Amino acid sequence: MTAVTITVLLLVIGGFIAFAIVLQLKEQARLEKLRKVANLNNQLRQVRRYLDEMPPQYQPKDMRLWLFSRMIAIYDQLLILQPDPTLTRRRGHLAEEMTEFQASKQKRRAKPMNDEILIIEVKRMFESFKSFLIVSQKEKSIDSDVVYRYSKLLDFYHYKVNSDYHAYLARKAFLSGQMDTAVEMYKEALAQLAPIKDSVEAQPTILKLKDLLQEIEEDLALQKAEEEITQNMSSDDEDELDDEWSKFIEGSSFKEKKRF
Fold first, then answer.
1. Which has the closest alpha carbon to 54: 98, 135, 108, 134?
2. Which residues contact 125 (CB under 8 A, 6 or more apart)?
3. Mean pLDDT of all residues belonging to the chain
4. Closest C-alpha among 187, 239, 242 to residue 212
5. How far apart are CA 215 and CA 225, in angstroms?
6. DSSP E strand boundaries for the chain
7. 141 CB contacts (<8 Å, ≥6 apart)?
8. What pLDDT score was predicted for residue 257?
9. Among candidates 138, 142, 131, 135, which has minimal Cα distance to 69?
10. How far apart are CA 182 and CA 189, in angstroms?
11. Is the model more confident about 242 or about 93?
12. Helix, strand, coil fractions of the chain, as percent rounded to 5
C-alpha cells in the first residue's frame, strides 16, 4: 500500500469521524433545545397555575405582578428558542392582562376556605411556590429580599388558611343563629394563629377575630340578661296572680260563712 493510498484512507476516515462528531453535536444541541423548551413550558404551566389557583387573599398585588412578569420573561425565552406566532399572541394577551390588573383599583374577591381538602391543596401550593421562589432566586430573576418577604408571608398563610376555615364556620354558625357554636369557632380560629401571634403579618387578622368574638359574646350576654329579666317578670306576674286568686278565694269563703 502506497503512502498516497494510506493518506487518502486516513483522510476519508478522519472526514467520516468529523462528520459523525458534527452529527452528534447537532443531535445533542437539538436534544438540549428540546429539553429547554420542555422546561420552559413546564414553568409556564406552573406560573399560570399560581396565577389562576392561588386564592386572591393569599396573593398580594405585587406578588401577582411579579408572577405576570415572570411568565412574560419565560415566553421571551421560548420565542428565542422556538419562534411561533401562537406563542407571540399568547404573550401579547398576557401582557394586556398584566397591564389591566396593574391599573385596576378593584380588590379581588377572596375565595372561601370552606373545605378541608381545599386547605390541603392550598398548603401544597404554598410549598410549591416556596420552591419556585428559591429556583427563581438562583436564576437571578428575583431579589433575595423579595424572596425573604414572600417566604415570611407564605409561612403566615400556612397558619392563616386554617384560621380562615374556622372563621368561615363561625360566620356560617352566626348566620344560622348558632351563637355558642360561632363563639367556639372564632376561638378556634384565633387558636390556629397562636404559633405566629407575635408576627406583624398576623396582627390585623387577630384583632379582627377578637373584635368579632367580643361582639358576639356581648350579644350573647345581652340576650341572657334579657331572658333573665323576662323570666323574673313572668315569676312576678305569676306571684301577683296567685295573690289575687288567694284573696278572691278568701273573700268568697267569708261571704259564704256570713250567709250561712
1. 108
2. 49, 50, 53, 54
3. 86
4. 187
5. 15
6. none
7. 70, 73
8. 37
9. 142
10. 10
11. 93
12. 85, 0, 15
What's the pLDDT at 181? 94
At 231, list the grid cell. 323570666
Based on its alpha-carbon atoms, the radius of gyration of the chain, rounded to whole angstroms, reads 37
205-211 contacts at long range (C-beta below 8 A, 24 or more positions apart): 205/160, 205/163, 209/163, 209/167
Q: And the C-alpha cell for 2?
A: 502506497
Residue type, 35: R
Closest CA to 90 of 47, 139, 35: 47
Please give the Cα distance from 143 to 136 (Å, whole number).
Answer: 9
Q: Across the chain, how many H-helices and E-strands are there?
A: 7, 0
Q: In whole angstroms, what is the distance from residue 52 CA to residue 3 CA?
A: 73
Distance of CA 51 to the CA centre of its chain: 11
Give the model confidence (pLDDT) of 31-78 as tens digits.
Answer: 788 899 899 999 999 999 999 999 999 999 999 999 999 999 999 999
Residue 210 predicted with pLDDT over 70: yes
